[in-house]
Write a structure and sequence with these properties.
alpha/beta, Rossmann fold, 3 domains, 20 helices, 56% helix, UCP010256
C-alpha cells in the first residue's frame, strides 16, 4: 500500500501539485481508514488530504483517474489464433489489484511466472489479458518504472519489463521451435506474440513516462530558467517564468510569515522571568517574552524599461507585486528618460497584465538617468522617509548625459535603504557611458542582478533585513 501511495505522490508532483510531508502522512492515515475497495471513497479521502486549492482539485481528479486506471494488456489482432481474452476486473477490483501489487514479489529469477506458474508464451497465446496486465504492472514495479525521466529511457525500461515478465524464456522457446522444422506455424505464432508483447509494453512505458517524467523534466527546465540571464529568456517561456515567480514568492511568503508568527509571541526572556518568579521558589507562575517588532517594508521601485533592461524590470515588478502579503506598500515607477508613476496600472489590473501594459506604454530608448534623478527630486523625494526602501533597477548607462550623483546622495540620506540592482557584470560598471561607480557609493546595496536566482536572493534579503533592523 505504501509503495502505491508513494507512486501516486510522484504522479501528483508530475502534474504540478505540491505534496508536503504532512500531507503524505495524512493521506496514508486516510487510506488506512477507508481502504482500497471503494474507488470514490478513496478518491474523496485522498483529495481531502492532498488538495489545497480549487484549481488543484481538477488536476487531482485527472491524475487519480489516470493513475488508478487498470492498464489492460491489449488483445492480439483479429484473425490470429488463440483463446478469447480473460474478462477485465470491475473498476473497484482493479483498484484493489493495483494497490496489492506493490506488496507482491516477482516470480523468481526466471521472470514473473504468475500465480499458476504459467509461462509467458502460454499467456500470450491464450490471450489472457488480465494475467498479462498484472504481470506487466508487477514487472514495472520490480524495475522501478516510476523513476523514468526522459524519453530516451523508453527503450531501456521496455526491455527491462519484458525481461522481468519472462522474455528470455519466450526467446528460448522461439529458438527451439525454429530448430523443429516441422512446426513452422508455432514459430509464426510465437513471433507474433513476441511482437505483440513488445508493442503493449512500449505503449505502457510511454503512458507512464507522460505521468512520471513530466515533473523531473520540468524541474530541470525550471532550474535552467532560474539561472539564465533574464534578457535571454524566450517569449515562449514567459508563462512558465511567471509561474516560477509566483512559486518563489509563495516560498518567500511562507518563510517570512513564520518569522512574523514567532514575533507575535517572541522569545522567552529568561532573566526577567526568573527575577519575577524568585518569590515562588523558581516555579514559573508568570512568564515574560522578548519580541522584536517586524514591520512590512514600504518599497519604491524605480525601473529602467528601455530596450536593454526591460526584461529585468518585467520580472522584478512581477516579483514585488506577488509579495503583497509581506510588502505593505509598493509604489512603482518606470522610466527611459522621464519618471512615470505606474502604480495605478498595477492597482487596476492583474499583475501579469499590468506588467505587459507598462512595458508597452513606457518602453523606449535614449535613457537619461540624470533627468530621471531630477524627476525623483521634484516628484518623489518628499515621500521618502526612514521607513522607505528604494529599489532601483537599471544599468546606469546615461548616454553621456549629466549624472546628478548629488541627488543620489540626498536620496541615500533620506531613505531607510537604497538598493541598486544592475543587470551588467560588476566588471562593466564605469566603462563607457556607465555611471554606476558614481552612484554606487550612495547605495546601501549595489549588486549585479540578472537572473531569477539573483532576484530571489535580493528580495529575501530585503525582507530579512527589514525585520532585523525594525
Amino acid at each position: 500500500m505504501q509503495a502505491t501511495l508513494e507512486d501516486f505522490f510522484k504522479a501528483l508532483r508530475g502534474s504540478d501539485i505540491e505534496v508536503s510531508l504532512n500531507a503524505q502522512i495524512d493521506a496514508a492515515r486516510a487510506t488506512a481508514l477507508v481502504g482500497w475497495r471503494e474507488r470514490e471513497l478513496l478518491k474523496s479521502a485522498l483529495g481531502a488530504t492532498l488538495v489545497k486549492t480549487v484549481p488543484d482539485r481538477a488536476i487531482f481528479d485527472r491524475t487519480f483517474d489516470r493513475f488508478f486506471h487498470f492498464d489492460t494488456f491489449g488483445t492480439r489482432p483479429a484473425g490470429q489464433p488463440g483463446a478469447a481474452p480473460a474478462a477485465v476486473p470491475p473498476p473497484d477490483e482493479q483498484l484493489q489489484s493495483n494497490a496489492e501489487g506493490s506488496s507482491q514479489g516477482s516470480g523468481g529469477p526466471g521472470g514473473c511466472q504468475g500465480s499458476a506458474g504459467q509461462a509467458l508464451s502460454q499467456l500470450l497465446l491464450a490471450g489472457d489479458s488480465a494475467t498479462l496486465s498484472r504481470r506487466m504492472q508487477q514487472a514495472a514495479r520490480d524495475v522501478g518504472l516510476t523513476d523514468i525521466w526522459f524519453f530516451t529511457q523508453k527503450g531501456y525500461y521496455t526491455q527491462k519489463i519484458q525481461q522481468a515478465m519472462g522474455l528470455d524464456l519466450l526467446d528460448r522457446e522461439i529458438t527451439e521451435a525454429r530448430r523443429q522444422t516441422q512446426t513452422p506455424q508455432r514459430v509464426a505464432e510465437l513471433e507474433r506474440a513476441r511482437k505483440h508483447l513488445f508493442n503493449e509494453v512500449r505503449n505502457f512505458v510511454e503512458r507512464k513516462l507522460s505521468m512520471y517524467g513530466t515533473a523531473p523534466t520540468r524541474e530541470l527546465h525550471d532550474d535552467f530558467l532560474q539561472t539564465q540571464k533574464l534578457s535571454n529568456i524566450d517569449r515562449r517561456d514567459f508563462a512558465r517564468m511567471h509561474e516560477i515567480v509566483r512559486k518563489i514568492a509563495r516560498r518567500l511568503a511562507e518563510r517570512h510569515a513564520r518569522r512574523k508568527r514567532r514575533e507575535q509571541r517572541g522569545q522567552l526572556d529568561f532573566r526577567r522571568t526568573i527575577r519575577a518568579n524568585a518569590a515562588y521558589g523558581g516555579v514559573m507562575f508568570e512568564t515574560f517574552w522578548r519580541s522584536t517588532k517586524i514591520e512590512r517594508p514600504r518599497v519604491v521601485a524605480i525601473c529602467d524599461v528601455s530596450g536593454s533592461v526591460r526584461q529585468y524590470a518585467r520580472f522584478l515588478l512581477l516579483f514585488l507585486y506577488s509579495l503583497d502579503e509581506l510588502v505593505s506598500d509598493v509604489q512603482s515607477f518606470a522610466f527611459t528618460n522621464h519618471l512615470i508613476d505606474v502604480s495605478a496600472t498595477f492597482a487596476a489590473l492583474p499583475v501579469e497584465q499590468a506588467v505587459d501594459k507598462v512595458m508597452q506604454a513606457v518602453g523606449g530608448s535614449g535613457t537619461d538617468y540624470g533627468q530621471v534623478l531630477e524627476d525623483i527630486d521634484e516628484q518623489l523625494m518628499h515621500r521618502i522617509d526612514r521607513r522607505t526602501t528604494v529599489l532601483i533597477l537599471g544599468d546606469a548607462r546615461n548616454n553621456r548625459g549629466e549624472a546628478h550623483a548629488e541627488i543620489m546622495k540626498t536620496l541615500y540620506g533620506r531613505a531607510r535603504r537604497v538598493i541598486w540592482l544592475n543587470p551588467e557584470p560588476v566588471s562593466f560598471w564605469g566603462l563607457g557611458d556607465s555611471e554606476m561607480k558614481r552612484y554606487a557609493p550612495y547605495c546601501h546595496i549595489a549588486r549585479e542582478c540578472n537572473s531569477l536566482r539573483h532576484l530571489e536572493r535580493t528580495l529575501d534579503e530585503l525582507l530579512r533585513t527589514n525585520s532585523a533592523s525594525a
